[in-house]
């Protein structure tokens, strides 16, 4: 969807808002459908707060006029869950996706594409919560369902293949993860072309696999290629920019180019705070990694400063829903205690 289409959608939504009255139900429904499309556009652009607001507004309209548990209401619920995942609100996302999946299975059937979308998103929640066995089972069920319903070359099927490769990578099954990711990449290249976000996603996973094997030099090169491509395709303010900046900095630090890594982390931190807000989850990772590099070079006071800021935001990330952040917070406290002991010993 181009910027021109976005402007047209926004104009149509305003037009329907001005013209509708309580008796013009068709007009209101059309507005809700446009809001759904606008939510999808904002999500693709990484504007997750805007996407969530539009999806919630659409859901409220559909529910008011069509009743609960109708296909459009359930589709909106799935979109809301998707946006919550992108905002790392996993407990909220799980709740709404469990509900939409159950209702879609009852009303649409287990092989309906919308049901499979809810299943795939729910599996993503479990992946982020490190509930790997549950996630793998549901990812495989979703993949099989999409292969049978949509075909092996459908973009949604390839998304499932890609997500399964991510899970296997995180579980340490690098061989199978690489096989699935390469299969997904080959088909995505044929369908989408080299600069499509789906293709870049697969390339990023292959770079993750290089990094996991300790091939930091080639991983860095691959991450930089993906970073530059995302900058051109999605714009410099897309949230994926921060994730890729972190991965580049990590590979640089792993090659003992510590001063360069510190510079890259500072750039990432500045970008993240301005573009995404101070509470974005990846800023927690940025501060932790930056503190680690500063500690290596003996800049203990600055390292402690970043750890203190990081720990002050702990309440924003419930541990049961964000195990990665919970683990980082625990490690950060341990590192801060070590640094403060060094201060007291030297003082």
Describe it for me?
By secondary structure, the protein is mostly helical. The protein has helices at 3-19, 25-44, 48-66, 71-86, 90-107, 113-128, 132-149, 155-171, 174-192, 197-212, 216-234, 240-254, 258-275, 281-296, 300-312, 323-346. Helix 1 (3-19) packs antiparallel against helix 2, helix 5 (90-107) runs antiparallel to helix 6 and helix 7 runs antiparallel to helix 8 (155-171).
Question: Can you give me a brief rundown of this structure?
Answer:
With 347 residues, the protein is an all-alpha fold.
| Structure classification | mainly alpha
Number of strand segments: 0
Helix content: over 70%
Give the termini separation.
Answer: 60 Å
What would you call the shape? globular
Oligomer: single chain
Biggest sheet layout: none
- Mean pLDDT, to the nearest integer, reads 88
Backbone CA Rg: 22 Å
As a percent range, the share of strand residues is under 5%
Number of helices: 16
**Poorly predicted ranges (pLDDT <50, ≥5 residues)?**
18-23
């Amino acid at each position: 969807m181009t910027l021109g289409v976005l402007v047209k959608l926004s104009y149509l939504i305003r037009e329907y808002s001005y013209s509708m009255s309580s008796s013009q139900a068709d007009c209101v429904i059309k507005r809700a459908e446009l809001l759904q499309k606008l939510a999808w556009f904002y999500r693709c652009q990484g504007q997750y707060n805007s996407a969530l607001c539009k999806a919630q507004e659409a859901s409220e309209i559909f529910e008011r006029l069509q009743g609960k548990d109708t296909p459009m209401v359930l589709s909106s619920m799935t979109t809301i869950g998707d946006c919550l995942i992108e905002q790392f609100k996993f407990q909220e996302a799980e709740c709404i996706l469990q509900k939409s999946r159950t209702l879609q299975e009852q009303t649409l059937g287990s092989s309906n594409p919308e049901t499979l979308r809810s299943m795939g998103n729910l599996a993503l929640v479990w992946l982020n919560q490190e509930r790997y066995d549950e996630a793998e089972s549901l990812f495989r069920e979703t993949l099989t369902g999409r292969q049978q319903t949509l075909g092996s070359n459908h973009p949604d099927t390839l998304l499932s293949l890609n997500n399964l490769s991510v899970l296997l990578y995180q579980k340490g099954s690098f061989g199978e993860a690489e096989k699935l990711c390469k299969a997904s990449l080959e088909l995505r290249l044929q369908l989408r072309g080299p600069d499509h976000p789906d293709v870049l996603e697969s390339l990023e996973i292959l770079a993750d696999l290089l990094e996991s094997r300790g091939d930091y030099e080639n991983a860095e090169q691959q991450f930089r290629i993906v970073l530059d491509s995302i900058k051109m395709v999605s714009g410099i303010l897309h949230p994926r920019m921060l994730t890729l900046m972190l991965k580049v900095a990590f590979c640089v630090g792993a090659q003992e180019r510590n001063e360069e890594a510190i510079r890259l982390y500072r750039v990432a931190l500045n970008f993240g705070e301005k573009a995404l807000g101070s509470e974005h989850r990846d800023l927690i990772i940025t501060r932790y990694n930056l503190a680690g590099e500063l500690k290596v070079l003996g800049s203990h006071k600055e390292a402690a400063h970043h750890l203190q800021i990081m720990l002050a935001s702990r309440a924003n990330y419930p541990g049961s829903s964000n195990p990665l952040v919970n683990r980082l917070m625990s490690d950060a406290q341990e590192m801060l205690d070590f640094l403060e002991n060094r201060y007291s010993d030297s003082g």
